[in-house]
Amino acid sequence: MSFFNSIGRSMARNPRPPKRSPTGPNFYQDAGAPPVPGAGDAYGAGAPMEVAPADPAQKPLYLCNPFVKAALVKGSFKTIVRLPNYVDVNEWVAVNIYEFYNNLNLFYGVLAETCTAHSCPTMSAGPALDYRWIDQNRKQVKLPAPTYIDYVMSWVQQTLDNPKDFPTKIGADFSPTFPTTAKHIYRQLLRVFAHLYHAHYNTVLHLSSEGHFNSLFAHFLAFGKQYDLLDVKDIHGGSGGAVGVGELWEKWKEMGVLEA
Ligand SMILES: [Zn+2]
């Protein structure tokens, strides 16, 4: 019962990579929406917001060959998302979320230098898609992407470290709200992926990491689909059709990568 969580717990002790503060130490005070554990969009509605289209003419590189096919794992993720024998499904979901979070955090740590309030004044995820944060007053606010991502990653880390959400003691059961919490985490991590694909894929290519990044995201999508953690409309964005990583999702489905 506690095997996977014991792994997770030992990983939890590893500190997150130091956060960069490209906008200076006073930035959070100026932002007017300090992070509050449990507040914000992670527990809110936070539907993707349509914004004025930017330049839709150019197809994103992540949708082009050969990059769309770059992967460490060939074929589908069918076998690695399958629930192992004798493992509780909540344990399986918990440990996988833990892995996704940590891997995404490592990628973000590398890409963070290029994600500043100047380069990314909004949490963009496509030419017509912009995510907004919901502050303590339930107001939707635009945040620079690095601020939004810091809020998300800090909130997820706190949630993972909270034994009420992610129990670690032998015999401790998962809360009945665990599936909801897991979905909230998933939704926010998806947004971080979506921003990195939209705004920082060139850097991923520059680092020759497209195979790693694609495999991590495809695994994330396949797992989310298998365990009902993903809301398809979150992947597609608004009602105007597939945008950003929504198209990638469709392409990978066509290629059979996401079959589970
Ligand atoms: Zn950015």
Give the arrangement of secondary structure elements.
Elements: H1 3-12, H2 27-31, E1 49-50, H3 78-81, H4 89-111, E2 123-126, E3 129-131, E4 133-134, E5 140-141, H5 145-161, H6 178-206, H7 210-226, H8 232-236, H9 245-255
Antiparallel strand pairs: 1-3, 2-3, 4-5
Bound molecules: zinc ion.
Describe, in plain words, how this protein is organized in 3D:
The chain has helices at 3-12, 27-31, 78-81, 89-111, 145-161, 178-206, 210-226, 232-236, 245-255; strands at 49-50, 123-126, 129-131, 133-134, 140-141. It is mainly α. The protein has a single domain, classed as Butyryl-CoA Dehydrogenase, subunit A, domain 3 (Up-down Bundle). The structure holds zinc ion (ZN). The site of zinc ion has 7 residues, from helix 6. Keywords: Metal-binding, Zinc. InterPro entries: MOB_kinase_act_fam (IPR005301), MOB_kinase_act_sf (IPR036703).
